[in-house]
Design a protein that fits this description.
By secondary structure, the protein is an alpha/beta fold. It has nine helices and ten strands.
Length: 280
């Protein structure tokens, strides 16, 4: 668990992923690596066309089609390398010491599983133009299989000045409080604690623990319980207090963590204009 891994795919959000990767690398004092995965379904490394077309002995055409696939694959690899090199050079220009690049063929999920042990923080991009495909399916798959903090970057980078942690007293969000308290990632930033639920003594006690933990670590930690619908409550609070990043647990059974399971993962990311940090 040593590297900040920023997933670059060539879309317009890649610049923001690059910038948040630099921000996190500097804050954590962790190595930065840019990852680009060439999907086999788009850029096949090998082709076997004999079973796909009924051309019998027309070997010349088969060879030509195979050659086209090979050229597409090589072109994709060259484009990927140039793109990664450009981001590496820009990171160096922005003060990152020895950033590196990783290039793979395969699926993003398979690659992340392979390198998971080396990931301290994973940075992915939010693709507004193709939200259902990129966020709805791809992101949910990644969140389910990768047990590392995941930062979902929005299209425009803004260095966080205030963060908000959606707290529910669960083991996951208690771990999140401890992570924020001990990690240099958010050191010096106000961390607002928001609990959506009933204003009873049990919830107040849980929230007091979270607030005390952060304050003892030197954080300014305003804490609030809001009785209302989760998405609207978090959104209204974010807007009212100019929050720059939302921190949430990814899975579980409480009202907040159910909010992030299945199709509602798409909802929370679609409807917020700020980056989301997902914790396990």
């Amino acid at each position: 668990m040593t590297n900040v891994i920023a997933c670059i795919d060539g879309t317009e959000v890649s610049t923001s992923v690059h910038d948040y990767g630099i921000w996190a690398s500097k804050r954590l004092g962790a190595p930065l690596k840019f990852l680009n995965v060439l999907d086999r379904s788009q850029y096949p490394a090998e082709s076997d066309l004999s079973g796909n077309i009924g051309l019998g002995s027309r070997e010349a055409l088969l060879e030509k089609l195979a050659s086209i696939d090979e050229k597409r694959s090589k072109l994709a690899m060259e484009h990927s390398k140039l793109m990664l090199d450009a981001y590496v050079q820009n990171a160096i220009a922005n003060g990152i010491d020895s950033p590196a690049s990783l290039q793979y063929h395969g699926s993003l999920e398979e690659v992340l599983v392979e390198i998971e042990e080396s990931i301290r923080l994973l940075v992915l991009g939010k693709h507004d133009n193709h939200l259902r495909v990129h966020i709805g399916s791809r992101l949910e798959n990644v969140v389910r299989i990768i047990h590392r903090p995941i930062l979902i970057a929005t299209i425009k980078f803004k260095p966080p000045q205030r963060v908000m942690l959606a707290f529910d007293g669960s083991a996951t969000t208690r771990k999140g409080v401890e992570m924020v308290a001990t990690s240099p990632l958010f050191c010096g930033l106000p961390c607002h604690l928001i609990m959506v639920g009933t204003k009873n003594e049990a919830n107040r006690e849980q929230l007091r623990w979270a607030q005390k933990t952060l304050e003892e670590a030197g954080f300014d930690a305003p804490a609030t319980i809001i009785d209302g619908e989760v998405e609207r409550s978090l959104g209204d609070y974010r807007s009212a207090h100019e929050i720059d990043m939302l921190i949430m647990g990814a899975y579980g059974h409480s009202v907040i963590r159910r909010f992030l399971v299945g199709s509602t993962t798409t909802s929370v990311i679609r409807n917020t204009s700020i980056p989301v940090m997902l914790l396990h």
